[in-house]
Amino acid sequence: MFLKCGLIVVFTLLVIDIESGYVRETKKERPLNEYISHYETLSYDHKHLHASHSRAKRSVTKDHQVHLRFKAHGKDFNIRLRRDLSTFSDKLEIHGPHGGPIEVDASHLYEGELIGDRDSTVFGAIIDGVFEGKVIAGSGRDAYYVERAKHYFRNSSDPETHPLHHVPGHDRPFHSVIYKEEHVDDPYRHRRKDAGIHPSGCGFNDEVSAWMDRVQNSAAED
């Protein structure tokens, strides 16, 4: 009798916790490297995204949209992107070491938001049908980095299935990784803070500069 009553009480409390949202499925963390404690993989249709990017590049209108949708970290990412025409001026000129002009192609740069989250921010690039950038939820509490898998899995890419990577321990091939900002252990965070450098400030901070360098290198490789 007492055992039965005890089980009923435990079951009732468990139901209350589940309905209240306090019970969460525990997943084993999957570290990406010594600084990123957990990541998930993405394998959306990169050919479809490449076609959408090509249409946006050819479009004569400035508001041509590109849509990208995937699920990761228990969240549905429904992203709407537009060509980023504000980062670089139309009159921008870059000259090489010999003084000659160098053609600048910024058509792969995008900005946008999460559909249904009007205060969210998304910026990044689409290269070879793969999006790489940052997604910031409107609440400001959750931020995600999306990167090409080749930055971390250099020896697992098959030229015949590029840009997909086949890695043991993963259910299916993937071309991208996504991780939350809170899962990044920045060893220089305290040094920047002591020096009065705030990554959340305006302008081209260290984070944006490093990201743009990586995007430019990706474009050059492809």
UniProtKB/TrEMBL annotation:
GO biological process: integrin-mediated signaling pathway; membrane protein ectodomain proteolysis; Notch signaling pathway
This protein's GO CC annotations: plasma membrane
Keyword Magnesium in record: no
Endpoints of the signal sequence: 1-20
GO MF, one annotated term: metalloendopeptidase activity
Highest rank taxon of the organism: Eukaryota
Keywords: Integrin, Signal
Protein name according to UniProt: Disintegrin and metalloproteinase domain-containing protein 10
Organism: Culex pipiens
